[in-house]
Amino acid sequence: MLAQVLNYLNNHFVDEMYTGYIEDGDLIVENHDLIAGQHIAIRESRMNDGVYKILSIENDIIVVDGDITNDNRDFIVYGLMIPKEVVDLATSLETSDTDIQSESLGDYSVTFKNFQEQFGRKLSNYRKVYRDI
User: Fold this and answer.
1) How far apart are CA 69 and CA 40, in angstroms?
2) Secondary structure (3-state) at 55
3) End-to-end Cα distance, the chain
């Protein structure tokens, strides 16, 4: 859900850019200032584009919260500095049923509402006109 929110905002809160690659199933990013707990975005890979949270770092090997597939070329790794409010909002969207609003099907009624309608005002301060990555 975090990636969807960031795409909606056209803002990934990019801090720095690095080159990364996969070696023996490990994500390698050399000469970086990334820290555990920080989010990264991978772009221009064949199989791994997306937003990930760094779980741990040992030397230049980065362990993230998603599956990384072997990719036989270099790609871009963006270090992100996402505000806590945005991360918390995305997390709450993943764990809640706030999408439900109203729809009728015989005696049964449910409604659906997307996060843009529900949280658009809160997110508007972070929205950019053009995509950043």
Assistant:
1) 16
2) strand
3) 17
